[in-house]
Amino acid sequence: MYSHMMVGSNDIARSKTFYDATFIAMGGKEGILDPKGRLIYMHNGSLFLVTPPIDGKPATAGNGCTVGFAMTPEVADAWHAAGVANGGTAIEDAPGIREGGAMKLYLAYLRDPDGNKLCALHRVTD
């Protein structure tokens, strides 16, 4: 259903340090900087972009927005650690299993250096 996800940044160099580390931790590659100054990450057939806002105003994190990435619990732990070590902030509970309703999920949450909320998610099946 989705073609890509994009978040704003006020400091592309800082974002590249953060996102290169987190994408490498989940088995991806470093981002490519395009002629418009946007970072482009390609992984598992999906695109994730980081851009300065087109309107020239400061980038802000969307209140209530979360970008989710599917990965195994082991990769989620490495992704979370790489994010925290490269300018991200750990938020919510520590990475681990959460149960609610009929679902059991392994979740890890970060905010990137610009405050965008990110989630590593694995649906646990017994």
Account of the 3D structure:
By secondary structure, the chain is an alpha+beta fold. It has one domain (4-54, 65-123): Roll (2,3-Dihydroxybiphenyl 1,2-Dioxygenase, domain 1), CATH 3.10.180. Helices cover 21% and strands 36% of the residues. It is built from 2 helices and 9 strands; from the N terminus they run E-H-E-E-E-E-H-E-E-E-E. The chain has helices at residues 12-25, 73-85, and strands spanning 4-8, 32-33, 39-43, 46-51, 67-70, 89-90, 96-100, 103-111, 117-123. Strands 5, 6, 7, 8 and 9 form a 5-stranded mixed β-sheet that branches. A 4-stranded mixed β-sheet has the order 1-4-3-2, with helices on one face. The radius of gyration is 14 Å and the shape is globular. The model has no long low-confidence stretch (mean pLDDT 95).
Characteristic terms for this protein:
four-stranded mixed β-sheet; 2,3-Dihydroxybiphenyl 1,2-Dioxygenase, domain 1; five-stranded mixed β-sheet; 9 strands; 126 residues; alpha+beta
The rough form would be described as globular
CATH C-level name: Alpha Beta
What amount of the residues lies in strands? Answer: 35-45%
Low-pLDDT segments, ≥5 res? none
Query: Helix content range of the residues, please?
Result: 10-25%
Tally of strands: 9
Decide which structural class fits the backbone. alpha+beta
List the helices and strands and how they pair.
Layout: E1 4-8, H1 12-25, E2 32-33, E3 39-43, E4 46-51, E5 67-70, H2 73-85, E6 89-90, E7 96-100, E8 103-111, E9 117-123
